[in-house]
Amino acid sequence: MLRIAHHPAYNHPVREGHRFPMVKYELIPQQLLREGMVSPAHFFQPELAERSVILLAHDAEYVDQLMDLTLDARMVRRIGFPLSQSLVERERYIVDGTVQASLHALQHGVAFNTAGGTHHAGRNFGEGFCLFNDQAVGAAYLIRHALVNRILIIDLDVHQGNGTAHIFADHDCIFTFSMHGEKNFPFIKERSHLDVGLPDGVDDRAYLILLREQLDALFASIRPDFVFYQAGVDVLATDKLGKLQLTGDGCRKRDELVFGYCKKYGVPVEVSMGGGYSVHIKDIVNAHVATFKAAIEVFGL
Fold it and tell me: For 58, phi and psi rounded to 5 degrees?
């Protein structure tokens, strides 16, 4: 049974005037239900992630300063949101959603978090609206509890997963792969195990050819027994921040490729939504919902 993490706190407007990017977390579940792809029984509500779990991927001093609301003002500016208890709790719900979704994926092949993909948060820093790195914590959790041996993190957000790369730079069992806009944020990038930087203006055909080549080599060489997929839809041509030229169809085929390789190699996958900043909210929601559709079709759910 497909399991999907969702919590009302995901929708919380963390900053005055910042409601638009957050409303997608409210609309994605509604659209999934409206189209009849899932029922309310498919959703589960995460809890607040425990400090001890967050510490699997983040430094104690940074975590404590966030949770105590004593983080340095310069770091708060780097994150981009004013620090508040509700913001920290929101991120803790997202982290637990991804951890629990990864456990469901081990059972059912694939599971989702309707939020997450907070890949700019590094071991001891937050950045780009990311406080805690949900997929990094999820990956560290699976390894710590000896539930899997080799993890591949596939990050296809238009922005490099610099925080994830920072956390796992010296890790032998967790391999980070980021395919992103080379000239896009963050402008000072960390080094993933594999980075593929794309020039501005890449279209569907070029993107999908390159992605297939990378996935073919990665699955054959790494032989992961678990995948975390950061499925940002800011690769769309309609995205205000993306600089790439993917269509909705191209974005859907991207998802089908990832899920197809997971299915072919028998690898469970947890999916977090990542970014999306198109002018029209329907373009963002439709692209995210298409990711769910692709998983349901590929895995025969």
Answer: -130, 150
Tally Cβ neighbours within 10 Å of residue 169: 14
Q: How would you class 151 by CB atoms within 10 Å of its CB: exposed for 0-12, middle for 13-18, buried for 19 or more?
A: buried
Per residue of the chain (301 residues), what is the pLDDT tens digit? 899 999 999 987 555 444 445 789 999 999 999 999 999 999 999 999 999 999 999 999 999 999 999 999 999 999 998 999 999 999 999 999 999 999 999 999 999 999 999 999 999 999 999 999 999 999 999 999 999 999 999 999 999 999 999 999 999 999 999 999 999 999 899 999 999 999 999 999 999 999 999 999 999 999 999 999 999 999 999 999 999 999 999 999 999 999 999 999 999 999 999 999 999 999 999 999 999 999 999 999 8
Does the predicted TM-score (pTM) go above 0.90? Answer: yes
First vs last Cα of the chain: how many Å apart?
7
Provide the number of structural domains found in the chain: 1
Full domain range(s) for residue 119: 3-299
Cβ-defined contacts of 60-64 (< 8 Å, 24+): 61/124, 62/123, 62/124, 62/125, 62/126, 63/132
170 alpha-carbon distance from chain centroid: 21
Q: Is 121 exposed, middle or buried (0-12, 13-18, 19+ CB in 10 A)?
A: buried
CATH number for the domain harbouring residue 38: 3.40.800.20
